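Exercise 3.2. Students should predict the tertiary structure of the chain below and write it as structure tokens, then compare their answer with the key that follows.

Predict this chain's 3D structure.
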Amino acid sequence: MRALDDLQVAGRTVLVRADFNVPLADGPDGTRIITDDGRIRAALPTLSYLRDQGAKTVVVAHLGRPKGVASDALGLQPVADRLTELLGTDVKVADDITGPRARGLVSDMEPGDVLLLENIRFDARETSKVAEERQALATELAALADVYVSDGFGVVHREQASVTDVARLLPNAAGRLVHKEASVFGTLLTDPGRPYVVVLGGSKVSDKLGVIGNLITRVDRLLIGGGMAYTFLAAQGYEVGTSLLEADQIDAVRGFIQEADARGVSLLLPVDVVVADAFAADADTTIVDADSIPAGWMGLDIGPRTRELFASSIADAGTVVWNGPMGVFEMEPFAAGTLAVARAMAGSDAMTVIGGGDSAAAVRILDVDEEAFSHISTGGGASLEFLEGKTLPGLAVLEENA
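Answer key:
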């Protein structure tokens, strides 16, 4: 991929695809408040560089899944307001994406200005399965700029107008964020430090079958927590009460357990769990051995002995990758397992990578120092597909046109 520094941007209009899909909450005065601006801050190195170089920067981004229907609830004004604060310059929103108002605002830009186009997914062509429809939108986007910079890692696994199609129409490069993400995940697949430890959690085994299948041939230790752990426990013949269980994945999980054993991969499962009699923060809870979950109770976090086991496995690692929380960390009684993994990684000398999504959110919510990790990815889905060994369309198109 061509690096950002290889593009001539001074005085030119640069179309930047960013990922500003940030969580929002209702403020006391009815305004929308960004509750985690991590993805916005991740775009600052690219945007600041372009401003310093005297480029006119037009940013394309999405928020939520509006499915082609515009709504105030998913408009990007809160993002523009936060960018204004972080960049120290007024960032306007063009509310018609590629229409006359957008074209007028672009034509009025001065070197160093930043303009944010309205939520690109308000235009149904962005995510259309019909190539001609995507290409038509891409042509309109390309007409706004001289060059294209891909800096939304969270969408590079998508075939979309502003991700892949427009990159074929303009000279392009990877932004600072995308370049770093691709470099980090490339290292994880080709040259990780040993022992190589991967921690997987989250709710469903089915979401991570491809990741497990690809990594089990590469890692030294695989630590399984979260809701997906109960399918692994069930595959070993344990009763799991009312815990989350994907019965149709038990055979696949047994296959992974057998393959790990055959390859000498240490596959660590919970040895104890925090169980509750209801899915609620005020439910009755207790700690039981992983093979003794009582009927009518559900596992909602890994237990204290498992936390110690996982922390010990992380302590001497050369590389640690984490994707998916160990429990329902949003509820205080079930956050200790996720916090234990985060702290173990933060205190490690290993290359530590958090694979985006809920794991990245947990680090911020639980107030663990982000600077203690080697890399916190901005793309949950993209990072998973990278770890599966899949070709990511948004990266492939940059390589094609380098």
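Discussion points: Residues 176-190 form the longest helix (15 residues). The chain has a mean pLDDT of 95.
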